Amino acid sequence: MPLEAKITNQSWRDVLAEELKKPYLKELKQTLQEEKLQHTIYPTDENIFNAYNTTDFDNVKVVILGQDPYHGENQAHGLAFSVLNGVKHPPSLVNIFKELQDDIGCPYPTTSELTSWASQGVFLINAVLTVRAANAASHKDIGWEKFTDATIKAISEKKEHVVFILWGRPAQMKEKLIDQSKHLILKSPHPSPLSSYRGFFGSKPFSKTNEYLIANGKSPINWCLK
């Protein structure tokens, strides 16, 4: 099965039709097959494109851009910053939830899955969609960035009034792909413990996003989780 066949959401297949024909995706699939012979790879095959398959292109209101998947067992499931329930909340997610409390008063969630955000139009995409177990950034520069850059460009070009939330320098390097004349970009330090106190806390991304959506005639996101 071609790698791109795992994108089952037709809205994305239509929008990325030309990108899905490009030879680098075949090369990327071959690289992943070789990697799997020697390493455990996260997330599982069926979850690699979970962000695309959960959030229709037509429904995208917000983009939260991560770097690469969590590399611990049972963590990554294809949505940036989200981990499967039953797993200890990673430090970055803990800080996101703390800011969620402070920003809009949501109770601290028991869930660690952000699927309810994704189903409301929050596209939770990592720049790199796979990783070796226990080896952060191990799949950097194998081809994923070409695909996710094309994705960001497509959202920027084909939609209006989308909020792009860019946490940390790697995410902010994607700013050049976004047309700021018709979208909102919210930037702050990354929510990791190394940088969260340098401006992530107090950045109010959730309330600012909803204010922008409402001002542009869109329904706000219900950020509170159970």
TrEMBL record:
Q: Which CDD domains match?
A: UDG-F1-like
Per the annotation, which location comes first and is thus the protein's main one? cytoplasm
Recorded GO cellular component terms are:
cytoplasm
Q: Which family does it belong to?
A: Belongs to the uracil-DNA glycosylase (UDG) superfamily. UNG family.
Question: What is the native source organism of this protein?
Answer: Sulfurimonas marina
EC number(s) on file: 3.2.2.27
What reaction does this catalyse? Answer: Hydrolyzes single-stranded DNA or mismatched double-stranded DNA and polynucleotides, releasing free uracil
Report the protein name in the record.
Uracil-DNA glycosylase
Q: Which residues constitute the catalytic centre?
A: D68 (proton acceptor)
Q: Where is the Uracil-DNA glycosylase-like domain?
A: 53-213
One MF term in the entry's GO annotations: uracil DNA N-glycosylase activity
Protein's cellular compartments: Cytoplasm
Q: What is the role of the protein in this entry?
A: Excises uracil residues from the DNA which can arise as a result of misincorporation of dUMP residues by DNA polymerase or due to deamination of cytosine.
Its keywords, alphabetically, are: Cytoplasm, DNA damage, DNA repair, Glycosidase, Hydrolase
What biological process terms from GO does the record include? base-excision repair, AP site formation via deaminated base removal
EC class of the enzyme, as a word? hydrolase
